[in-house]
Design goal:
This protein has about 550 residues and is mainly alpha-helical. It contains 28 helices and 4 strands. It is about 70% helix and about 5% strand. The protein is flat, with a radius of gyration of 34 Å.
Amino acid sequence: MGGFTEADLRVLAGPRSFERGEDYLDAVTALEVGDGWITATVHGTDAYEVELSLDEPEGLTGECDCPYGMEGNFCKHLVALGLTALARSESLPGEYTRARSRVQDLDAWLAALSRDELLALVREQIAEDRQVRRRLELRAASARGDLAEVRTRIRELLDIGRFARYGYVEYADAHAYGEQASQAVSAIADLIASGQAGDAISLSREAMRMLNEVQDAIDDSDGHLSQVGTALATVHLDACRAARPDPEETAQWLVDHVLSDLDDLTDIDPLDYEDVLGERGLAGVRELALEAWRGNRTGWAEKYLMERLAKAAGDVDSVIAVHASDLARDGSTHLVIARELDAAGRPGDALRWAERGIGEVSDTTTPAIGLVDYLCDRYTRSDRFLDAVAVRRAHFTAHRSLAAYQQLRTAAQAADCWEAERGQALALLRADAAQRERVRYGGPVLIDALLDDKDTDAAWQAATASGADDRQWLTLADQARTTRPADALRVYQRLAEPLEKETGNAVYERLTSLLLSMRDCHRRLGTPDDFAAYLAALRGGQKRKRNLMRLLDQHAL
């Protein structure tokens, strides 16, 4: 369980829970170590079972059955366990070895028991633990092929009544429900092992329907329900491989299932059933999928299934036909088609689809930026620089942003026509600023564009005439400080004034940065005494802010 630090615990828990956890170090008992996990009992208001896990890619996670932990929080008890583990890091390998030894000793002891002794032990556990008894009863019903009993128990296991509060299973109870539902999967798997694979097929399908009916009533933030759905899909495939059901009936069920809401949890892929379906069944899947798609060419599930089958068959034209039947207004579907054709080694067709996508975008719709980028890249690689400029110009005209301006500049510079393009682009931005229309396109974008061009004087004039936000004024002052120190100084002083009324290390860092810039302006203006007086007054008024004073001292302010 190496690989986490005290800082990790602090981040996961937050400062309040971390500090409380430090008070519980003496309350950690019964610590056990396994492969990537540590468990213990932490005594607080009650005795809580706590577990820390370190997995890839999730990193450090924890579970605790205290009320706060059951809500999904990294509680003080988890902090206490983590700090205890860090403090005992040198001894943990030895404890892990001893734990493994205990498991081996237990296995050896169980193996040495006679049949009667094992039966007596199991009966003792059944008498003491109702849940163990019910799990074993279900396993027994599956083993003897009692389909009626197994079906009844599966319905009970998938019923949310025991966990629901006001008809909804909260996050804290979702894990327990998932564990209970998993028993239904095990029971179906036992039916396969007992030679009842055909019954396992029907029961797994019924279980999928029942799980789908309750999914909206469960907080499945951690994916417990999805895991059960995936397990049901796996056991259904296993049952089909064992029972070898009718290929045509299986094909019909697969297509119906994939096109329904039932597949949200199971994510079944009909191609996984290739060995079950055979050629006849696969042909049936293709025919049924095609029929469904023709009846609903814009349906997401129908399109996905058709695309999946066409790609598996290497039928690029069918993939294109699926996408072409439902083209997005912004050209994004044209881009998907172009990329499919590129992958198939048909760049000419890909370019034509991309050009068609740009051409078919309506005047009221902004083209997908991915399509614009794709087409400009193709033009540039083919030395069609003016065509790339035309596409960028149209995009900038429709979507006047700094990013669009920069992309137009790059294309125009490659075509050696930036001076003319820049004049037209700035004229559009100035017109917007003058009319004060389209706030997102107005003065601020004009100023950003001029700043990006390092045209500081023009940017200053635009900011004075049209207004600018604080970020832009700060950038302007930084760029103009060497040539317009007095103007820059006024900007820095205005931005610093409200910060004097705020607190926090981030605020102090911004204020210090502004003061350093002011000092440089005064140096350029030959007025260091004025800055000294300003700084003295500021320090006098802010002297209670110790972190600010420390930061000023560090920068000799």
